[in-house]
Amino acid sequence: MNILEYQAKRLLARFGVSVPEGRIAYTAAEAAAAARAIGGAGWYVRPQRLGAEAPAVYAGTPEAAGSAAERILGAPTGGARASANRVLIEEALPEAAAMALVLSIDPAAGRIAVAAGASDGANRPAADRTDLHRLLIDPTTGVRPGHAWGLAGRLGLSGAEAAAFGTCLAALHEAVFALDARCIAIDPLLSHAGRGMIAVGIAMEIDEAALYRQPELQSLAEEEREEAEREAERSGLNYLRLEGSIGCLANGAGLAMATMDCVRLHGGAPANFLDIGGGVTPERVAAAFRLVFSDPHVEGVLVNVFGGVVRCELIAEGILSAAREVGLHVPLVVRLEGTNVELGRKLLRQSGLPILCADSMDQAAAQIVAAVREAA
Known about the structure:
Helix content is 38%, strand content 24%. By secondary structure, it is an alpha+beta fold. Strands 5, 6, 7, 8, 9 and 10 form a six-stranded antiparallel β-sheet that branches. The protein is elongated, with a radius of gyration of 26 Å.
């Protein structure tokens, strides 16, 4: 589970990790006020959204910070579909040599893996970089002075800088265990006279299996879940929004994944994963349709349902009811299979709605991709 950058900074600050002074803002006015409250000659406006990598925007005046926040808030962030609903306003620190420092769990070695080196500005995963200095720390002994000084020396640090690096490394090591973190990545890590090492960019991944003993982190996870996902859970649906344009609706996780793969095979991109579950009912189908159509990026919908326990004509009635309720304004392809399938298809064809019926999953995927392209 990933958490937002400002949340990670607040958590790590409790362990003694130095972070820039910053405040969260939800509006342009709040952003300008935050910059004034922080003080200084410049600020960075950082979008806060899970799964969104977007560069910080420099602002030289509080008014510029407000304008930058206004551009960011509500706009798609870093190519991600979801928008940022808050920004982090942070003090702009003096320029300094930037480093990258990553702590992660190495299950094979039973150790904490540390990787450190110069920041390359690309935020690449530590595993993808061959230029980082690495060491393994035994969790039973923790960070020893030799660990910190040896790694600091390889990074070209000495004196007060090396001591500050060691303090930061020990604090992060403690945080990994206390927070059940799978990975804590800092890039850039800046050296600041009088304040030691300052973690400017932080990404943190928490072990979801350990959330039961991390109530605070569990509440953060719930807070960041999209309303669509919460609505899906209330309706007994398994739903995850993706980056494509073709809404997918199926019963059973395996069939849902196969449907998505088939859409990709024909050149389309799924807009979601949606598993109705085994007990298909008209009410659940209607709830699934509402979820799919709540995404404004959906340009077509593919329904792929096997009617076993529930007869296909009842499923068809649920589809028609849901289509009329949401107002069908994009192509819809339905593939039904199972008990009373012909009756179900007949109801769909005679409904008067622009619904295409397919005999196979492959045909359905080809039809919806072609229909979306034609409508574009």
